[in-house]
């Protein structure tokens, strides 16, 4: 009976893990513009030539940006800014967002001003013809060639976004974002479903806003990480079951259960199985216990008799993860 159970475990192991197994891990990446972690009171100026509402989209995403349930920025309300400008115009006729963004920023106690412009917004349709052929009989001994009309539509959007630090009046960030989409459709291939330029510009506007937000705030990302499933040593029936169960828990994202099972497997194998150590390292990495994960990867590497690409990737990755996480946490502490 025990032999039958062992065979079933092996069968399950091979059927589930015959291909390379991966798990998805969540990471916190730092903002690329680190200085923004110290400039938390910000305002968004109306962009020039902004018929697509890019400034409003950025303002909306900044307002919605929360990390661990806490707002990352204090966004100064656009309506309040407009009221201040209107009042200043009545009193002094001297402040506008176009000419004096720094002075306005000081007036409304902003630490940084986000400004920009749409410098390019184009689309074009290029007509062409493609040759098709049609069989005139069942054996296709005779064919008829004909041409169909096609359209290649290209839609392009370019925007420049700047960040001005109010205290120094200096531009601390400027970048040109360009989006290009092009596709070909012919009259015999969903000809009527070609996207309207306005639809494409709206998507491109949203993409640019998302990219900009990733520049100025810490952002969560997900990556597929490889697991090891070949023990490389003679496992007992009990140890084989633990490995199968541990990998299955990881696959089902039951990380705490995977931690307990793989920790037990490491104990049962007296820390001499690099597969158990490595997979436990992946579990610790997914729990954001990066120092423990690194220690387990180092132990894994020490047991290897030859180089292993997956383990080498883990050792390289965990150093980057630790650096990026420390940087992101420091940015959050400035909040």
Architecture overview:
This protein is of the alpha/beta class and 335 residues long. It folds into two domains: 2-29 and 222-333, Serine Threonine Protein Phosphatase 5, Tetratricopeptide repeat, CATH 1.25.40; 36-217, 2-Layer Sandwich (Double Stranded RNA Binding Domain). Helices cover 44% and strands 27% of the residues. It has ten helices and nine strands. It has helices at residues 2-17, 54-64, 78-91, 101-107, 197-216, 237-251, 255-268, 274-286, 290-303, 309-333, and strands spanning 22-29, 41-44, 66-67, 70-71, 74-75, 112-135, 143-165, 170-186, 219-226. The strands form three sheets. It has a five-stranded mixed beta sheet. Strands 1-9 form a two-stranded antiparallel ribbon. It has a two-stranded antiparallel sheet with strand order 3-4. Strand 6 (112-135) and strand 7 form a beta hairpin. Helix 1 (2-17) packs parallel to helix 6, helix 8 (274-286) packs antiparallel against helix 9 (290-303) and helix 9 runs antiparallel to helix 10 (309-333). The N and C termini lie far apart (61 Å). The relative contact order is 0.15. Residues 4-19 have low confidence and may be disordered.
In short:
This protein is α/β, with parallel strands linked by helices and 335 residues long. It has helices at residues 2-17, 54-64, 78-91, 101-107, 197-216, 237-251, 255-268, 274-286, 290-303, 309-333; strands spanning 22-29, 41-44, 66-67, 70-71, 74-75, 112-135, 143-165, 170-186, 219-226. The chain is 44% helix and 27% strand.
């Amino acid at each position: 009976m025990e032999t039958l159970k062992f065979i079933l475990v092996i069968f399950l192991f091979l059927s589930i893990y015959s291909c390379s197994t991966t798990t998805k891990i969540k990471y916190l990446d730092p903002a690329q513009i680190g200085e923004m972690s110290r400039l938390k009171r910000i305002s968004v100026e109306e962009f020039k030539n902004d018929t697509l509402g890019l400034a409003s989209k950025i303002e909306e995403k900044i307002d919605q940006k929360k990390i661990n349930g806490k707002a990352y920025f204090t966004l100064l309300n656009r309506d309040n800014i407009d009221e201040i400008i209107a009042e200043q115009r009545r009193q002094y006729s001297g402040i506008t967002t176009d000419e004096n963004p720094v002075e306005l920023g000081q007036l409304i106690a902003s630490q940084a001003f986000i400004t920009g412009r749409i410098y390019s917004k184009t689309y074009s349709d290029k007509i062409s013809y493609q040759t098709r052929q049609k069989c005139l009989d069942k054996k296709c001994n005779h064919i008829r060639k004909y041409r169909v009309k096609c359209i290649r539509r290209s839609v392009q959007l370019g925007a420049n976004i700047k960040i001005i630090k109010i205290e120094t009046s200096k531009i601390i960030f400027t970048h040109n974002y360009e989006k290009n989409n092009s596709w070909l459709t012919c009259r015999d291939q969903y000809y009527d479903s070609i996207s309207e330029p306005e639809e494409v510009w709206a998507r491109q506007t949203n993409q640019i806003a998302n990219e900009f937000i990733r520049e100025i705030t810490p952002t969560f990302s997900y990556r597929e990480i490889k697991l090891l499933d070949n023990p490389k040593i003679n496992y007992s029936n009990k140890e084989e079951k633990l490995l199968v169960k541990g990998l299955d828990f990881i696959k089902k994202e039951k990380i705490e259960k995977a931690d307990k099972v793989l920790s037990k497997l490491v104990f049962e194998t007296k820390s001499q199985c690099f597969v158990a150590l490595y997979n436990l390292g992946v579990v610790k990495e997914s729990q954001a216990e990066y120092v423990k994960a690194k220690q387990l990867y180092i132990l894994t590497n020490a047991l290897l008799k030859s180089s292993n690409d997956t383990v080498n990737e883990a050792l390289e990755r965990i150093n980057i993860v630790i650096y990026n996480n420390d940087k992101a946490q420091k940015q959050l502490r400035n909040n």
